[in-house]
DNA sequence: TCTCAACAGAAAATCATTATCATGTAGAAT
DNA sequence: ATTCTACATGATAATGATTTTCTGTTGAGA
């Protein structure tokens, strides 16, 4: 896992490139939002990013964070995970659909390695005739850490 | 598929039973909401149910529909499908987690027959150590009907 | 340095959902 | 059938995450 943080730098620069391509400006706040999004490993909420950015730029408005996230959504460079009972969470590292595992206790969200989703998609296509464009595969439960602390 | 509508009657009466067990009252509005929920085949929104119920009881408030849906949620007799960009949809026929296929054009939601989800869950358990309690498996795309009308 | 469209920040608007509360009524007791 | 009352309805207000609006500011090209 030595290369993980290098990958994050790469990803960050990919996003900067994308902004340049589309002639969006590089403001300090925008760059800080990108950094916070890419370098967070918790699938952060807008609020999470907001707090992170505020440490460096205390006058930042939460609207600015929302706007940058919307921008990335338009560019297809961020995956939005909406929930009925909590605020949206974001994955700017992997903007394409992929499965998630969510701890109901500590709200941690992780990316599991799963090979079976494409098969599932093929099965759906075959059985329903739908043209499938994206998906959302989430499992909810209790993470190993929370299972420990629960059994006290 | 002859028995499908009979199953719906059965399901409806199951819900009525459940209300009786828990000593909730049988009001005309509440019964109409149950009917609308069970007999709709589109995974209706609260608004959908509201309009349906209004045809029979024009003074019904949308708050009443929300409250009955909340009641069924508490009883574990309805499945809530939340979306970030549209209002919640409900399945009162199958209150347990199951996969869905959603048309992005006409917003139709169907229940596909899939066998692979339990395997997926086992894979998750094994790879992450999570205790899995529920899931959400949605595929988004274009239904066969909308594919037809799109290619004009 | 100058210019100006794009941006940041503050505040208001939106919208689905939930909460509040006065009035009405289901259903049990009389 | 009548009465009683706890629960339900319906109208309205509150909520909270997100979006929009507006005004002053600024990134970046000329
Ligand atoms: Mn992810
Ligand atoms: Mn369903
Ligand atoms: Zn946990
Ligand atoms: Zn369709």
Describe this structure in a few short sentences.
The structure is a homodimer. By secondary structure, chain A is of the alpha+beta class. The first copy, chain A, is about 50% helix and about 15% strand.
Structure description:
Chain A is of the alpha+beta class. Chain A folds into 2 domains: 1-94, Orthogonal Bundle (Arc Repressor Mutant, subunit A), CATH 1.10.10; 97-152, Dna Ligase, domain 1 (2-Layer Sandwich), CATH 3.30.1490.190. Chain A has 6 helices and 5 strands. Chain A has helices at 4-21, 28-39, 46-56, 62-74, 117-128, 144-150, and strands at 79-81, 89-91, 100-103, 109-110, 131-142. A 3-stranded mixed sheet of chain A has the order 4-3-5. Chain A has a two-stranded antiparallel sheet with strand order 1-2. In chain A, a hairpin with a 5-residue loop joins strand 3 (100-103) and strand 4. The radius of gyration of chain A is 17 Å and the shape is globular. The two termini of chain A are 33 Å apart. Chains A and B meet through helix 5 and strand 5 of A and helix 5 and strand 5 of B. The site of one zinc ion has 7 residues of chain A, from helix 6. The first copy, chain A, binds a DNA duplex (30 and 30 nucleotides) through helix 4.
């Amino acid at each position: 896992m030595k290369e993980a943080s290098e990958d994050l730098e790469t990803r960050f620069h990919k996003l900067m490139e994308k902004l340049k391509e589309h002639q969006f400006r590089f403001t300090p706040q925008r760059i800080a939002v990108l950094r916070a999004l890419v370098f967070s490993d918790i699938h952060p909420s807008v609020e999470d990013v907001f707090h992170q950015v505020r440490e460096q730029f205390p006058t930042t408005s939460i609207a600015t964070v929302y706007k940058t996230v919307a921008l990335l959504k338009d560019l297809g460079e961020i995956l939005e995970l909406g929930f009925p009972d909590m605020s949206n969470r974001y994955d700017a590292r992997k903007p394409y659909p992929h499965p998630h595992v969510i701890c109901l206790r500590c709200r941690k969200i992780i990316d599991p390695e799963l090979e079976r989703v494409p098969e599932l998609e093929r099965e759906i296509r075959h059985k329903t005739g739908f043209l499938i464009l994206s998906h959302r595969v989430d499992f909810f439960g209790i993470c190993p850490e929370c299972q420990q602390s629960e059994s006290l």
